[in-house]
Amino acid sequence: MNDLAISRFSRSLTARAGVFLLFAALTLAATAGLAQAAVTLDVQKTGGTYNSIQDAINAAGITTNTVVIRVAEGTYQENLDIYLASDLTIQGGWNSTFTSRDTNRATVAYGDSYGSEIDISESSITIDGLTVTRGNDSDGGGIDVGDSELTLRNCKVVRNWADDNGGGIWANYTTLVIENSEIAHNITSGDDDDYYGGGLYVYGGSLVIKDSSIHDNNTAADPYDSGDGDGGGVYLKDTSATIERTRILDNSTVYGDYDSYGGGIYADSTNLSLINDLIAGNSTYDDQGGGLYYYQYDNGNNLSIVNSTFSDNHSDGSGGGAYIYTYGEGAVDIRNSVLWGNLNPEDLYLIYDDGTTDLNISYSDIGTTGGDPFTAGPGVISADPLYVNSTDDFRLRAGSPAINTASSAGAPATDLDGIARPQGAGFDMGAFEWVAPTVLDVTAPTATLTTPYISSNVKKNQDFDLSWSGVDPAPSSGGLLFDVWYKIGNGGAWHRWLDWTATTGRRFRGLRGKTYYFKVKAKDAAGNVGAFSSESMTLVPFDGLLGNYIVSRNGFYLNKWTKASNNNYGRTLRKSSAKGEQITYRYKKTNQINLIATLGKGHGKFKVLVDGANKGTVDTKASTTQHRKIVFTVDFASFGTHKIQVVNLGTPGRPTIEMDGIAVRR
């Protein structure tokens, strides 16, 4: 036994020892009549009940209980061994307190030594919300599973490596279910050996894949190696597989001295059903089946392709889209599908036994063909399907011959995007159902914005509320989003405040003495973007402090309050109670000055001088107390430096003057 085998055996033995000890304890408890409840085990890198996933697996042991291992987000650098586990679930995406779970939270199992990141045997297990990465082994760099039942849900199996088979996953005589998961950037690399299944290798057992993505996987080797390199994305052998609502994209088989079949999928002696799948951008080097290579020889296996799209796949041999070889008993059913725009040289290459193979090709759009001639069934066309984009968006455009021309027989209820079928008078060919817009919206929406002119009118601090709205002219696509910008001062630079928000209002906090300008534009659901609104401005006043702006002062003492209930602006004001007391302010770069005062029964009159000129008298008497009121405004022809002076006239019986702030437009 070499060092590698000894290391893996040692880890497995340690794990199994813990399993058997806990099983013995549970058995004794059961014998004593104690009830066995469902078990929940929590894993967190620091401070948790278990600090590693393997510790929790060991603690789960062999039991008839349902065991849920909850794993907090984080990166766990360890290789996992799971043996004889029953009804075990590993859940990633938990927060640090295990009070909420989101599978978008990164919970990463990261290989720490040579060997499969997760090694599973003779177990029934669900893995939900885990990222499996950086595993490396001869078979199954990410996951090596045998003689088991495994469900992968909301998982990512990415950037793993196998020296032989199954860069991402190697499954042997296993019931494997993959849902809403991603298998990507995995690789197999042979060295004078065979290297199959860059993303996924399945031998025996069964496979179901739904709502998933298998992309950018490959089988690769030195060009002088003598091994085969089949199944860049998926390799299937002697199994039964259903792949539904799944994207198989940009996988490849490269180099190798011998065979290199099936860039996207390789299937040998397998019952294979493809439903609502997009198979695109896959390639083989020097061999057959860029998108799909299917082979069965007199063993009664069936191939079914329904409402699937094969496009932009490439093969240096035959069957850029699909290469199908079927001999003897078995069936091939291609229905409601599109095989178009594949390279070198055919969209479909077919070899079959006319005497015993049940061949049905119907209601499909098939481009170039090769191999044995065949008689097309009803509804088969050969015409440009009019993709939105022939390299990366294979949805149909208006006018496509694939719209409303498929069969309802066996058609799925929804398309690859989850859109209900049919949308029109009939079902559409391919993976995508075309949705006719009711009316095309090409008119940009308009937007308006409202702000208070002076913030102290509505708030006793620098906060103020903005609101905005939009109008999307008919025919409206709705869903308005708003882009809100601001600048400080007339000559300031514009800055984005809110980036395409659906909200129609927000509170803004300004700086005292600043003038803020705002503008907004709207975008509708059709992508039409309108022009910016007219600018709206808000002046944030100076409060009673104003030390740097006071030129001279006689009286007008500063009053300050600490209680939040105080209604003065900034909880400060300048107060005068005697005739002749005055205060003078000077401001630069302004074209408007506003005086803010308190009105009330005991408040009197003051005189205003601007740049030395008498501008009149202001009376601050009112029947009720009113705070933060604009009592005087002066405008200037241009921006410049100006002085403003307030002189208490000592009104008999009501000599009090309270200056609460000054708003300056800049």
SSE order and pairing:
Elements (H helix, E strand, L loop, with lengths): L2 H29 L7 E5 L9 H8 L6 E6 L1 E4 L2 E4 L4 E7 L12 E4 L7 E4 L2 E5 L2 E3 L2 E4 L3 E4 L2 E5 L2 E3 L2 E5 L3 E4 L2 E5 L2 E3 L2 E4 L9 E4 L2 E5 L2 E3 L2 E4 L12 E4 L2 E5 L2 E3 L2 E2 L11 E4 L2 E5 L2 E3 L2 E2 L7 E6 L4 E5 L2 E3 L2 E2 L6 E6 L2 E6 L2 E2 L8 E5 L4 E6 L2 E2 L2 E3 L15 E3 L3 E4 L49 E5 L12 E9 L9 E8 L6 E7 L3 E5 L5 E9 L12 E4 L10 E5 L2 E4 L11 E5 L5 E18 L5 E6 L2 E7 L6 E23 L8 E9 L1
Parallel strand pairs: 1-2, 2-5, 3-6, 4-7, 5-8, 6-9, 7-11, 8-12, 9-13, 10-14, 11-15, 12-16, 13-17, 14-18, 15-19, 16-20, 17-21, 18-22, 19-23, 20-24, 21-25, 22-26, 23-27, 24-28, 25-29, 26-30, 27-31, 28-32, 29-33, 30-34, 31-35, 32-36, 33-37, 35-38, 36-39, 37-40, 38-41
Antiparallel strand pairs: 42-43, 44-45, 45-48, 46-47, 46-49, 49-50, 51-54, 52-53, 53-58, 54-57, 54-58, 55-56, 55-57
From the structure above, extract its key features.
single chain, Immunoglobulin-like, 4 domains, eleven-stranded parallel beta sheet, 6% helix, disordered N terminus
